[in-house]
Amino acid sequence: xxxxxxxxxxxxxxxxxxxxxxxxxxxxxxxxxxxxxxxxxxxxxxxxxxxxxxxxxxxxxxxxxxxxxxxxxxxxxxxxxxxxxxxxxxxxxxxxxxxxxxxxxxxxxxxxxxxxxxxxxxxxxxxxxxxxxxxxxxxxxxxxxxxxxxxxxxxxxxxxxxxxxxxxxxxxxxxxxxxxxxxxxxxxxxxxxxxxxxxxxxxxxxxxxxxxxxxxxxxxxxxxxxxxxxxxxxxxxxxxxxxxxxxxxxxxxxxxxxxxxxxxxxxxxxxxxxxxxxxxxxxxxxxxxxxxxxxxxxxxxxxxxxxxxxxxxxxxxxxxxxxxxxxxxxxxxxxx
Length: 336
Ligand code: FE
Known about the structure:
This protein is an alpha+beta fold. It folds into two domains: about 1-115 and about 255-295, D-Maltodextrin-Binding Protein, domain 2, CATH 3.40.190; about 120-250 and about 310-335, D-Maltodextrin-Binding Protein, domain 2. It has helices spanning about 1-20, 35-45, 55-65, 80-90, 100-105, 160-170, 175-185, 195-205, 215-220, 225-235, 265-275, 275-285, 300-305, 315-320, 325-335; strands at about 25-30, 50-55, 75-80, 115-125, 210-215, 235-240, 250-255, 290. Helix 2 (about 35-45) links the parallel strand 1 (about 25-30) and strand 2 (about 50-55). The N and C termini lie far apart (about 75 Å). Bound molecules: fe (iii) ion.
């Protein structure tokens, strides 16, 4: 009888442990419509329940940092190599060993401790009546005195611009990168402000002649159901920069398993799930991005409308490596 009771107690305890272990705490800066299916399908496949904490990218990073070793977070998902690099710098991620991730995610799209699950490109937007397409074919052209008083930008401290600058440092070296930054500052139509969509609007309105934007903002506007936004897009042209040289700068959204993760095994399972064909489609489509896994095909009319292009294959490791230098260069150039 006593043995039976002990066995029963052990069984209950291990059952409780099993139930408790089948959870995953996801800190995510993503909140798109297709994410519901993304998460519920994982739970259906694995029985692992996902507890989601959603927030702004930088706030979530702060939160994980402040929670320290008590953090319940298993995975941190965010956008831009700059932010993923920051999480790495803070020592928040742990390297994971996964044959699935190694084989599915291209080498240039992951580091030792974080993986990209989708890609976005940084393109040049120009006003068709005030700027000629042939004058804005390369990122370097943004520094050409020809564009004096025409260039608009969001802040030089923003991750999207920092990562682009990091790619320029990686390709051309610091000295050239600084010349480029100074040239852009000399071409400002106004002091940097707003987000990518604000730059597109200002270009369309003629306040600026040229600006930079991530592709998903362009895709969103091209696919808009609002007549005024479609009209706005008629006035702007989109250029894939650096097609004759390094290719258009690519950034990513992705994530990593946290060093303090209480549910490490479940976290690795979820990372592997994100690299699956099905999850890749949801993940990329949710924000008009491209899947990181090359064999996955998506049918996204907004992206198709942008056409094909040559992408820069610079490893995301290099983008991460030059973040601090990128900020120093923008600061020295007065690119606020
Ligand atoms: Fe964005």
